[in-house]
């Protein structure tokens, strides 16, 4: 039986800028599909199930990072390797790409042979991983709203200490503020801000139990203005002070030992 050709989805608002790369991939026997914005790319990834995605970072509307969050929030696309393409040679942007689920980051203008080499590497790694993790469990199908919700929650959890305004949070999940607010209410029964507050306090409980960080350090990490503000919110929600909670968790851990 002839091996199936690898299928690569390219998401780039100016695909002509990487025309040489696309032509080389095709010449090497790979099937290519093009999308010119993040929304179209996510829809095609879900429908076509490519083996790998080449994703431009800087696009109008939702950028490549937002697209990657959406892809990684959807069980149907979360395992597809994503290679970011960007003209920005910035360490912070490289790190953001990897944190958001990318497997690699290539600078533009791209050398077609370099892209081909990296595509081959990640196709091979992905194929090996798929064999190792083969499972009879069926995929969970999510609605577009559930995918957006997961993407927003993922961004919030990764940025609790320095969250932007609602509109910016929404754009990171590929939507707008009013729609994101409706999605949270419809799916969770709470506002975005209520969920953020609960998530900050949940993370605060984890840090109190599992670390020796001081109260100000914890407040900084989870987005409270200062230690006093964190202590007040924690006591209102939990009925005890953060210090009392930490002591009780330490006593429980000592008892388990």
Automatic annotation (TrEMBL):
Keyword terms of this UniProt record: DNA-binding, Phosphoprotein, Transcription, Transcription regulation
Coiled-coil region(s): none
Residue ranges of domain HTH araC/xylS-type in the record: 150-248
Source superkingdom: Bacteria
4-aspartylphosphate sites (modified residues): 56
InterPro entries: CheY-like_superfamily, Homeodomain-like_sf, HTH_AraC, HTH_AraC-typ_CS, PchR_regulatory_protein, Sig_transdc_resp-reg_receiver, Tscrpt_reg_AraC-type_HTH
Pfam hit, one: Response_reg
Response regulatory domain residues: 7-123
Signal peptide: none
Protein name as it appears in the record: Response regulator
Organism: Rhodanobacter terrae
